Amino acid sequence: MSKQRTLRLVVRSFAAAALLCGLVAAVRPIAAQQPYKVLDHWKLGGEGFWDYLLADPLAHRLYLTRGNHVDVLDTQTGKPIGSIAGLHGTHGVALDTAGKFGYISDGGGNAVVVFDRATLATVATIPAGTNPDAIVFEPATQTVWAFNGRSHDATVIDAATRKTGDPGDGSSSLGWKVIATIPLPGKPEFAAVDGKGLVFDNIEDKSEIVRLDAKTLKLTAEWPLTGCDGPSGLAIDVAGSRLFPVCHNKVMGVIDSSTGKVLATAEIGNGPDAAGWNAAHKLAFASCGEGVLSVIDAGAPGYPTIESLPTQRGARTMAYDSAADRIYLVTADFGPAPAPTADNPRPRPAIVPGSFTVLVVGR
Fold it and tell me: Tell me, what's the pLDDT at 169?
């Protein structure tokens, strides 16, 4: 074989290899960067403000906390299924792994309210700390964790050894038992679990994340979030050992959940309050009150923001539906804010009656 022919074969081999590498590298970014868009608006109306919402992908349900009640929607039709009423100031919802019970952090009632997921009937009320806000179900220990915003602690409830019948102590807990109250170093915000017994929570006023062990019921780490101020929403990538807190200074932190190290910060919109995670495409989401859904590619170097989807002003809380690859956001139309007072220096703007809406986002 001549030297010239050999050289040509070598060049062609390198070119083919380069082309193959390029094609392989392009597969994930193309899938990951396929844009999301607003697919639908479900106008529900009603009165009052709202807080967190939660999707149940298997049951095709969406739980919306709305002041003194929780609305439940069918995610396939957008139609109301029912409501859990008689509450005092709801914040979040957590669901057990058996598909039987749900848990509501009723901040105004300083309690966790248990409901039957089949009937939506309230079956127990469990005293918590002051103003329980974020709430999660920890599957490895079958415990419920309510994070109390004003008493700066976490109420842990045993859901595994519950017995039916009157507990005989004058309460209405029906056997659900508070097994620990864990002090926290500041004001807790949203929480996340890894499914193996670890619970993580943002401490908003300290700009840090804490790690708690659900098996020992102890706080085991306190990690400062350098470059991430006032974290609120929190998402978790269990397989990749990453936490994604969204922060008031328009960034999403990328945190190693094993060490607490800040690996990166990604740009997001203004006024974030919730986060979500798409494990199939390694995408992290931040819903922002200015009216933007930020999408971050966590599988690409540098964690780039690949989309800033216009949504609607006030759409700062969200739920991700992993089965449908859909994001649900809630907001309403707003009127002018009332004049500030000494007791209320930053009053909320008035909600236009009947304008409460769910935005459905998908591909």
Answer: 45
What is the domain range of residue 135? 86-224
Residue 80 domain-assigned? Answer: no
Specify whether the CB–CB gap between 292 and 310 falls below 8 A.
Answer: yes
Reported as a pLDDT band with limits 50, 70 and 90, residue 121 is very high
Q: Is 206 strand, coil or helix?
A: helix
| 171/116 same-domain check | yes
Supply the pLDDT for residue 166.
42
Residues 55, 64: contact at Cβ < 8 Å? no
The one-character DSSP state at 346 is S
Burial of 304 (0-12, 13-18, 19+ CB in 10 A): middle
Q: Which of 363, 209, 222 is nearest to 285 (CA)?
A: 363
Residue type present at position 122:
T
Q: Which of 169, 197, 224 is the last residue of a domain?
A: 224
Q: What DSSP string runs through 147-205?
A: EETTTTEEEEEE-SS---S--SSS-B-TT-EEEEEEE-SS-EEEEEE-SSSEEEEEEGG
Instruction: State pTM to two decimals.
Output: 0.87
The position carrying tokens 């009053």 is 347
pLDDT band at 161 (very low <50, low <70, confident <90, very high): confident
